Amino acid sequence: xxxxxxxxxxxxxxxxxxxxxxxxxxxxxxxxxxxxxxxxxxxxxxxxxxxxxxxxxxxxxxxxxxxxxxxxxxxxxxxxxxxxxxxxxxxxxxxxxxxxxxxxxxxxxxxxxxxxxxxxxxxxxxxxxxxxxxxxxxxxxxxxxxxxxxxxxxxxxxxxxxxxxxxxxxxxxxxxxxxxxxxxxxxxxxxxxxxxxxxxxxxxxxxxxxxxxxxxxxxxxxxxxxxxxxxxxxxxxxxxxxxxxxxxxxxxxxxxxxxxxxxxxxxxxxxxxxxxxxxxxxxxxxxxxxxxxxxxxxxxxxxxxxxxxxxxxxxxxxxxxxxxxxxxxxxxxxxxxxxxxxxxxxxxxxxxxxxxxxxxxxxxxxxxxxxxxxxxxxxxxxxxxxxxxxxxxxxxxxxxx
Length: 401
Description:
Blueprint lengths: L1 E3 L16 E6 L5 H12 L2 E4 L13 H5 L6 E5 L5 H9 L3 E6 L2 H14 L12 H6 L2 H11 L1 H14 L6 E4 H6 L1 H11 L6 H8 L15 H5 L2 H12 L6 H5 L2 H10 L6 H8 L7 E6 L2 E6 L5 E5 L12 E7 L3 E9 L10 E7 L4 E7 L9 E6 L11 E8 L1
Parallel strand pairs: 2-4, 2-5, 3-4, 5-6
Antiparallel strand pairs: 1-3, 7-8, 8-15, 9-14, 10-13, 10-15, 11-12, 11-14
Helix pairs in contact: 4-6, 6-12, 9-10
């Protein structure tokens, strides 16, 4: 194990760290070394590295190495996942958890930089022959990382999504750090139960830290660097996962860039078509605001009526209707259909639960379950026994068939 002492600016001893033991848990290329450095400077405590090996091995909290640090306050930073033994160690040693996440599009670009410019050995994605990897064209390297590194990131995200509340962790993001560094670190420091000293924090943030591998400090590099094919590959990996990863899809930098600036809603075919479809105006209001459809539900019977041709099979379409929607209330979405001379009825319907909580969620209807020869569909929002959704604001983020 190695450690280094990091005094504050101009030799200042720092604010009282008390018994502070801070664990920065982070996916690779999320700015975590920079965060740990700033926190160690602010509190005037050691930045320790309780690992006896850096390379391909998964990083875990090893009791013998953690216990060597327990005689003083410290900050440590690790790409650690919340396995049972790690959660036990967090509780046993009284570690305060600061969790950092970064959007996966930019992670891919930064990870490739790391392999090219720093080291190919890492616990996330195995690179057997670095020279062979470097000889690949750029987009081939990105494609390799999407296919082979992103599954680790998804596991990291999902496992900490479940575990973070159990250890009262502080959830942060790389994007927030870049946008408002002072507010970012203020939130962490106050979340650790310490009073903020604005002047001290400001002086630390003005320092240049050459040993933190804080590469560019830019959000959105992947917008221009990832090919459209690789963007689609990453999106499909997220939206096709059996767990709901819509939040990770929604935060991809090009979602806002391409939908709002490069491809406004008028050019998004299915959302455009849905915006033109009749809906029950007595129970809601629809506004097309790129890149979303905004729906204000004012009654208990809001629905769209959609001609069958809108969802009809076409080249490049799958046999499913996938709606990415963001809202707060949990309830039900229903897709009804009828044929010539028929009415909408309960025996021609597909029900799908929805649990928003402010996150983007995927609601998926298998169109293979649609029987007969439909001439029209009806998409009902929040109708059913679980709740009417009155007063809810929905954002339809993406619609695919």
